[in-house]
């Protein structure tokens, strides 16, 4: 059995765990205002990650339309914030 730090052990556990997407969604929620701005963050109801898809839920129809046009930008900004390829697609609900 090889010795490793607690940080390394946690990273390895999370990379293999089913809660990885939930943790990434929480991290995106924390960064969402910085990524998309105050107005978008205020009217975003929920963020989820399922199978490398970011699911954005909002009840504001004009915002839904605007987010549909910005899907590629959202993917790029989220992946830049994480420093790796986390999101491959965006779904707006």
What is the gist of this entry?
The protein has 93 residues and is an alpha+beta fold. Helix content is 58%, strand content 15%.
Please give a structural write-up:
- The chain is α+β, with helices and mostly antiparallel strands.
- Helix content is 58%, strand content 15%.
- Strand 1 (46-50) and strand 2 (53-57) form a beta hairpin.
- The protein is elongated.
- The N and C termini lie far apart (47 Å).
Structural class: alpha+beta
| Strand order, largest beta sheet | 1-2-3
Q: What overall form do the CA principal axes indicate? A: elongated
Helix share, percent: 55-70%
Order of helices and strands: HHHEEHHE
Estimated share of beta-strand residues: 15-25%
Question: What are the salient characteristics of this protein?
Answer:
93 residues, GMP Synthetase, Chain A, domain 3, 3-stranded mixed sheet, 58% helix, elongated
List the helices and strands and how they pair.
Blueprint lengths: L5 H11 L3 H17 L1 H5 L3 E5 L2 E5 L3 H9 L1 H12 L6 E4 L1
Parallel strand pairs: 2-3
Antiparallel strand pairs: 1-2
Helix pairs in contact: 2-5
